[in-house]
């Protein structure tokens, strides 16, 4: 039975619920997602809701508040870069429980996407890294440099650290890292388990980074999957194998599962594939079949929130976006088109290959190639999709530098803040 243990109590002093337990806070852009366990003892009547409140001084829980009927509850309109804690109260018909124990400290941060490396219209291989604020539309800002210029890149991230994986046209195993809150250039992070070229797929849960595929030597793809904890610099270790070899793969993830389209089997030719693999990020082991893209693909880039993954799945003629529900194995469903529409490659704004980054709301696709043959040029265009709602792309702004074959990451990647 609920007891008189502080906070607000029921009308007879005994009938309000016990407080919630296990409160955890996951920071986002000016917001926090507060997860908790409902109390076993609900008091005399059923629990009708919960209230989550935020404090910046661990005393007055007045910095932000929201209600809900279940875990988690999102509290928004918080101040970025200010540390805070959260508590949760349970409510029934007789009153409100005492407060839960406070969560661990969290710090909301602005949602930042990074785009790095690749080649520009002079075919110069780039070492620049630029940042894009994702909360509103706008242009990128060229801010930092990689440890070396690289023509083929992929990315991964936690809420504080971005990882830049160098693939190149000649196999390399170099991995850089940057700190989102810092203005300093990239530093050496460690090495992949083997040198690879032509890019692979990447996924992660904000703690562990996963790197898959690429070409090891020559042009043939590999089925290798590597992993590394993002918080500590060092070399990647073997995770397992995909169901087939691939290069130029995409990747996306939920907090528990990573999925990878398997694209071309080799560089400069090779078969196109439509198969998609998945792994459980926390448990090393081989990948299993997830389903199929809507078409065979040369290359793909993915973006996700915690439940849904979007892939461009480019095959030279079509530019529609596919999506998957990450928790449920099955085939892709059409999501929408880029703003220019589903047109021949010679007319598309986005053509193979470009990069994608995401927060919990937006999937942002940037760069790539427009035109074909002698008229082919790199682009700095960015478009975004609202992940929760199927539909066509919307213009976001421009990168500071036109680029293709570049990499990307975000401090709110995949909605995993």
What is the gist of this entry?
With 417 residues, this protein is an all-beta fold. It contains no helices and 33 strands. The strands form 9 sheets. The protein has a 4-stranded antiparallel beta sheet with strand order 4-3-6-7, with no helix packed on it.
Structural commentary:
This protein has strands spanning 21-27, 32-37, 47-55, 64-68, 73-75, 85-92, 95-96, 112-116, 128-133, 141-145, 153-157, 161-166, 172-179, 187-196, 201-204, 208-212, 222-229, 237-246, 252-253, 257-261, 273-280, 288-297, 302-304, 308-311, 320-325, 333-337, 355-358, 362-366, 369-370, 377-378, 381-386, 394-398, 407-410. It is an all-beta fold and 417 residues long. The protein has 2 domains: 21-96, Immunoglobulins (Immunoglobulin-like); 112-415, Neuraminidase. A hairpin with a 3-residue loop joins strand 19 and strand 20. The protein is built from no helices and 33 strands.
């Amino acid at each position: 039975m609920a007891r008189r243990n502080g906070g607000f109590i029921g009308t007879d002093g005994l009938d309000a619920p016990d407080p919630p337990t296990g409160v955890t806070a996951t920071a986002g852009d000016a917001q926090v997602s507060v997860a908790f366990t409902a109390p076993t003892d609900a008091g005399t009547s059923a629990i009708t809701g919960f209230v989550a409140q935020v404090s910046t001084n661990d005393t007055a829980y007045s910095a932000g508040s929201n209600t809900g009927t279940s875990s988690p509850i999102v509290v928004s309109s918080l101040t970025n870069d200010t540390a805070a804690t959260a508590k949760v109260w349970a409510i029934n018909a007789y009153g409100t429980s005492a407060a839960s124990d406070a969560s661990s400290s969290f710090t909301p941060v602005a949602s930042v996407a990074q785009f790095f490396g690749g080649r520009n219209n002079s075919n110069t291989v780039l070492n620049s890294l630029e940042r894009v604020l994702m909360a509103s539309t706008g242009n990128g800002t060229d801010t930092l440099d990689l440890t070396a210029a690289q023509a083929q890149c992929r990315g991964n991230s936690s809420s504080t650290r971005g990882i830049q994986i160098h693939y190149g046209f000649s196999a390399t195993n170099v991995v850089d890292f940057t700190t989102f809150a810092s203005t300093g250039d990239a530093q050496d992070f460690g090495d992949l388990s083997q040198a690879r070229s032509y890019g692979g797929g990447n996924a992660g849960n904000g703690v562990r980074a996963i790197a898959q595929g690429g070409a090891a030597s020559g042009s043939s793809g590999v089925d290798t999957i590597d992993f590394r904890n993002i918080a500590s610099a060092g070399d990647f270790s073997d995770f397992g194998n995909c169901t087939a070899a691939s290069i130029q793969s995409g990747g996306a993830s939920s907090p528990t599962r990573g999925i990878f389209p398997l694209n071309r089997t080799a560089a400069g030719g090779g078969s196109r594939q439509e198969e998609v693999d998945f792994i459980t990020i926390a448990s090393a082991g081989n990948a299993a079949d997830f389903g199929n893209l809507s078409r065979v693909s040369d290359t793909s880039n993915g973006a996700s929130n915690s439940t849904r993954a979007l892939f461009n799945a480019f095959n030279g003629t079509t530019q529609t976006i596919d999506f998957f529900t990450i928790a449920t194995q099955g085939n892709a469903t059409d999501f929408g088109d880029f703003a220019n529409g589903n047109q021949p490659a010679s007319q598309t704004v986005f053509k193979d290959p470009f990069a994608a980054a995401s927060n919990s709301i937006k999937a942002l696709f940037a760069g790539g190639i427009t035109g074909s043959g002698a008229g082919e040029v790199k682009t700095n265009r960015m478009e975004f999709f609202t992940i929760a709602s199927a539909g066509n792309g919307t213009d976001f702004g421009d990168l500071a530098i036109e680029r293709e074959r570049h990499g990307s990451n975000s401090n709110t990647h995949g909605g995993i803040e």
